[in-house]
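Kindly go through the entry underneath: sequence plus C-alpha cells. Please state briefly how this chain folds according to its C-alpha cells.
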Amino acid sequence: MLGAALQGLAQERGLGETPAPRLERPKAVDHGDVACNIALQLSKAWKLNPRELAQALVERLQKQPDFKQLIASCEIAGPGFINFRLSNAAKTAVVGEILLGGSHFGEIAQGGKPIASAMIEFVSANPTGPLHVGHGRQAALGDALANLLATQGIKVHREFYYNDAGVQIANLALSVQARLNGLKPGDTNWPEQAYNGEYIAEIATAFKASPEYRDDLEAIRQFAVAYLRNEQDIDLKIFGVKFDCYYLESSLYTDGSVGEIVQDLQSIGKTYESEGALWLRTTDDGDDKDRVMRKSDGSFTYFVPDVAYHASKWNRGFTKVINVQGSDHHGTIARVRSGLQGVAQKRGWEIPKTYPDYVLHKMVTVMRNGEEVKISKRAGSYVTVRDLVEWSGGVTPEMTLEERELALQRGRDAVRFFLISRKADTEFVFDIDLALQQNDENPVFYVQYAHARISSILQQWGGSTSDLAGADLSLLQSKASDHLLRRLAEYPEVLTDAAAELAPHALAFYLRDLAGDFHTFYNADRVLVDDESLKLARLALLSATRQVLQNGLKVLGVSAPAKM
C-alpha cells in the first residue's frame, strides 16, 4: 500500500524513482505496531520537507480501499516517521495463519520443494577421544543452523569431517600400545605425547578381546580409530544429532586429491620453494604472510588437505558451505580460501573469495556446585558431551531404564538450549546447577513450561482444537493479548533473520520472550471463562502460541513436553 502511494505521488509530481519502503516494528509499543521512515529517506532527493512528504503519503494511503481494514490509525512523529497502529482484524489474523500452517508455520517453503541447497560441516572431531563440550557447542549450533536454513526452503546436507590421518592419530596408536604393554600415565616409559584418559585403557581391553588382536601398530591404529568413531556416534545419538555424510581425511590422500591440489597450485605459480619447504603465496589473497604447504621432511601442513576437502565440496555441487568450528581455527581461514582461489584459477571454477562461510565459536566453561569443572576421569583432561548431558539431566546409577531415558532427554534439552542461547563468538559459562533447576530461572524450563501449561489448559477445556478455527478473534482486545499477538506475528521474520545472519541464538531469545508474553497473558486474562465466545477466542490464541513454541523448539532440537 505504501509502495502504491509512493508511486502515485512520484507520478503526480514528476519525481524520481521510488524505492521499496521498509517497515519496522518499533521497540516501544507506544510508538505503534509498524513504523516507516521512507519520507526521511526521500526528502533530500525529492527536495521536500520530510513531514510534508509523510503527510502527503498518509493522505494517499487513506484513500486506498484496504486502509480501514488494516490500519486503525497512523500519525507522523518527530522529523517525519510514519507510525501505524494496526486494526484488531489485522493483528488477530496471525492466529488463523498459525492454526492453518501448523508445524510449517513460519517456514518460507511451507513444506514445498527446496529453493536452494547448502552444506553445513560441524563437530568434525578427531577420532582421538570422546567428544568434549566444545564439540557439544558445535553440535548444538550446527544442527540448529541446519534446521533454520531448512525453514527458508534450503535443502541442507550435514557433514562430519574425520581427521583420521596425521600426528594425533599416530599418538593415539602409541597410547593404546603402551596400555597393552601394561604401562599407565605417570610410568617411566609412558610416551610423552600419549593420551592419558581412562578411555585409552578401555580401547586396549576391547582390542585384546577382539579377533583382530595382534601386536602391530597399524592394526592398533585401525581398531582405536574405529572404536572411537563408534563412541562418538553414541555421543551424537544421545545428543540427537544425525549426519548425512562422514568424510575421511585419509581418503584425500588415498584417492590422490591432496597430490592433485599441490600440482594445480604449483602449475599456476601460486607456490615457491624456500628453506627446503614448499610455500603457498597466501599474501596474494590478503594473508599477513605466506604459509608452508609441504615441510622439509616431505609431510604436508594441516591446511593442505583442508583445501583438497573444500575443493571436493565445490566439486560435489555445494556452492553454499558453512563451517562451524572453534575460534582456534581462525588462522586457517585465509589459507584455505587462498588455496581454493588457486585451484579455482587452474580448474576454471568460479569460487567466491569468501567461500566457505565460517561460524566460529568460543570456549565453554563448565560450573558445578559453584566451581569450575575441568577434568573428567574418562577423558583425562576435559568434560565430555556425555558428562554434560548426564549431569544436566540428573542421571544417577540407581535409575530404571525409563527414568534414565527421561533424564537424558531433560539433559539433552538443557544442553542444546543453553549452548545455543548465546552468540557463537562469545565465551559461555555452562552452569550445571541452573540446568537442573525446575523454575523460571532456568531458560529451557521456562519455555517448555509455557508449552506444557497451554497443553494442560487445552486438556482441561476438553474440546477439539479444530473447532478453534472459527473463534471470534475480535474479542481479543486486552493489553496482554495484544502483546502476545505482536510477538506471534514476529516469528517468520525471526526465522528469516536468524537464518540470514547464521544466528540461532536469536531464536532462543525469541522463544524466551514469547514464553514471557504468554505467562503475562495467563496471569492477566482468565482463559476458561463462562462467556463461550471469549473462551474460544482466548483458547485459539493459546493454541497458536503453543504451535509457535513447538515449532521454534523443534528448530533448536529441543523437545516440547505436554506435561512437566
Remarks:
- Residues 532-556 form the longest helix (25 residues).
- The mean pLDDT is 94.
- The chain has 20 helices and 14 strands.
